[in-house]
């Protein structure tokens, strides 16, 4: 069993993986001012809640899009595990054929998503990762990473709406009772949820047209379960996709550990 960690701009996802099986998954808020010790306490508390002991873990791996805290979190995890913890980045073998202008610019989280997607599902495919930003990864029939999209995440869009309009208060991301809202809150909920679902459906249609073939569509990320049930296209919801990818990369690179 390994400790798998995904550091995002809003949340840090922590889970334990046994092969492709996710033992548990939890989310912490990303706080850039925390110290190494504070993050170590967070990790220990999560492991304690699930009854996971240090001796149960053979190692750890981290994907991060927040470089300011990556090293501190790595040291915190190593403090708890008493083992080396890998970082997805330079020197990590992925086996992914990236066809972008600058392959090194591809975020670690997108690399991990793609590795897991290729291992778990038939190509060609597109992967929606719905977090602070919504990212779209396109993988062709030869399992090559062709590129994708990045656009504002659902919560970012909602926060922008409420912050710019004095009469609109903050709301939760839950589907309203009616598609056609009957009050301001319902209108906002309907607008953000169904416009997001429609955007995903539209992107899928355009990607299929661009690629000229049917595509497997996978969605993951903290906000996916809020939106995907309202989409009309066939989409596989996989909450554990990124942790599965981290587990695959750990196994692929374990021989390189010192």
TrEMBL record:
Protein family membership: Belongs to the type III pantothenate kinase family.
The enzyme's E.C. designation: 2.7.1.33
Ligand binding (substrate): 107-110, 184
UniProt keyword annotations, A-Z: ATP-binding, Coenzyme A biosynthesis, Cytoplasm, Kinase, Metal-binding, Nucleotide-binding, Potassium, Transferase
Catalyses which reaction(s): (R)-pantothenate + ATP = (R)-4'-phosphopantothenate + ADP + H(+)
Residues that hold K(+) according to the record: 129
Biological pathway: Cofactor biosynthesis; coenzyme A biosynthesis; CoA from (R)-pantothenate: step 1/5
MF (Gene Ontology): kinase activity
HAMAP family in the record: Pantothen_kinase_3
Pfam families, per the entry: Pan_kinase
Active-site residues annotated for this sequence: 109
Binding site for ATP: 6-13, 132
Lineage: Bacteria, Bacillati, Bacillota, Clostridia, Lachnospirales
InterPro entries cross-referenced by the UniProt entry: ATPase_NBD (IPR043129), Type_III_PanK (IPR004619)
Name recorded for this polypeptide: Type III pantothenate kinase
Top-level taxon in the UniProt lineage: Bacteria
Organism expressing this protein natively: Sellimonas caecigallum
Localization per record: Cytoplasm
Cofactor: NH4(+); K(+)
Subunit architecture: Homodimer.
Function statement: Catalyzes the phosphorylation of pantothenate (Pan), the first step in CoA biosynthesis.
Cofactor annotation remark: A monovalent cation. Ammonium or potassium.
């Amino acid at each position: 069993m390994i400790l798998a960690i995904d550091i995002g701009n809003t949340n840090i996802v922590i889970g334990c993986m046994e092969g492709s099986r996710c033992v548990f998954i939890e989310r912490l808020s990303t706080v850039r001012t925390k110290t190494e010790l504070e993050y170590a306490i967070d990790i220990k508390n999560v492991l304690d809640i699930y009854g996971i002991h240090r001796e149960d873990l053979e190692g750890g791996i981290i994907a991060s899009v927040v470089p300011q805290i990556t090293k501190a979190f790595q040291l915190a995890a190593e403090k708890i595990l008493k083992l080396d913890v890998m970082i997805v980045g330079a020197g990590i073998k992925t086996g992914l054929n990236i066809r972008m202008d600058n392959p090194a610019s591809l975020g670690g989280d997108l690399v991990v998503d793609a590795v897991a997607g290729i291992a778990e599902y038939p190509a060609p495919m597109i992967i929606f990762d719905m977090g602070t930003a919504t990212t779209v990864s396109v993988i062709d029939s030869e399992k090559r990473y062709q590129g994708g999209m990045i656009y504002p995440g659902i919560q970012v869009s909602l926060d922008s709406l409420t912050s710019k309009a004095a009469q609109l208060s903050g709301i939760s991301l839950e589907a309203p009772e009616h598609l056609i809202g009957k009050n301001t809150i319902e209108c906002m909920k309907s607008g953000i949820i169904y416009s997001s679902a429609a955007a995903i459906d539209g992107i899928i249609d355009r990607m299929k047209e661009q690629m000229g073939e049917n595509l497997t569509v996978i969605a993951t990320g903290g906000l996916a379960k809020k939106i995907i049930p309202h989409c009309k296209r066939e989409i596989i919801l996989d909450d554990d996709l990124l942790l599965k990818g981290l587990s695959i990369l750990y196994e692929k690179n374990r021989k390189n550990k010192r």
